[in-house]
Amino acid sequence: MIFTPTSVDGAWTIDIEPFTDDRGLFARTFCHDEFAEQGLDTRVAQCSTSLNRTPGTLRGMHWQIAPHEETKLVRVTTGAIFDVVIDLRPDSSTYCRWFGTELSAENRRALFIPTGCAHGFITLEPDSEVYYQMSQVYHGPSQRGVRYNDPAFGIVWPRAVEVITDKDRSYPDFQRATV
Q1: Helix locations, 47-87, DSSP H
Q2: Position 61 in a domain
Q3: Checking phi first, is residue 109 left (phi over 0); if not, alpha (psi -120 to 50) or beta?
Q4: What range does the domain containing 76 cover?
Q5: How far is CA 61 from CA 86, 108, 110, in A?
Q6: Is position 103 within any domain?
Q7: Residue 62: active-site member
Q8: Which of 10, 15, 61, 89 has the highest CB neighbour count under 10 A?
Q9: Structural domain count, the chain
Q10: 40, 117, 53: which is closest to 85 by C-alpha?
C-alpha cells in the first residue's frame, strides 16, 4: 500500500499496489503491520456501508466525541464520491483546515480519518456505495456535526447538493475554539 499524508495532520490517502494477471487483480486494502508502521490506529471495532442512489447526495460532516472518538478508513466499492475531512482539534497545527479527495471504485483509494476530525462526502455517480472501518462502535449520544457549507471551513464541493438530511443541513455556524 502507498500511504500519502494529506494537508490535515493525521489524515492519509492510501492507494493499493495491485498484483495483476489474466484473472484480474489482487491487492491488500488493510494490513495491521503496515498501518502500525505509519502510526495509524489499527483497531477495527465496526464496519458499515452506505448506498447512495442519487448523485449529489451529501452525508456529513460527522464525528464522535470522547470517550467514543473514532478513526475511520473509508473506501468506495461502487461509484464515486468526493470525500472530505475537517480538522476540529483545537491543539492541532491544521485546526479548521479541510482536505478533500475523490474516492471511487475505479481508483480504489481510501482515506484514513483520525480522531477529532469531521468526515463527510458528496456522491458523484448514481448508486455509490461507501464502506467504512471504524475503531469504535457507533455511539449515538457522542455523535456531533458541522454544516457542510459552513463559512468557517470554506469547503469547495465539486457539485451541487441534491439530497441531504434536515439534520445535516441545519447545524449552526461553527464557533472556533480559542486555545
Answers
A1: none
A2: yes
A3: beta
A4: 2-169
A5: 8, 22, 18
A6: yes
A7: yes
A8: 61
A9: 1
A10: 117
Q: Is residue 178 part of a domain?
A: no
Q: H or E element: which one contains 134?
A: strand 128-134
Cα dist. 63→15, 18, 24, 72 in Å?
24, 31, 36, 10
CATH number at residue 165: 2.60.120.10
Q: Which of 68, 95, 131, 132 is catalytic?
A: 132
- In whole angstroms, what is the distance from residue 100 CA to residue 113 CA? 11
User: What is the reported pTM?
Assistant: 0.95
Contact of 17 with 2, CB cutoff 8 Å:
yes
The answer to whether 80 touches 106, Cβ cutoff 8 Å, is yes
Q: Tell me: the pLDDT tens digits for 34-66?
A: 999 999 999 999 999 999 999 999 999 999 999
Catalytic residue status for 171: no
Peptide bond into 55 cis (omega under 30): no
Residue 174 lies in a domain: no
| Pairing between β-strand 143-145 and β-strand 80-87 as defined by DSSP bridges | unpaired
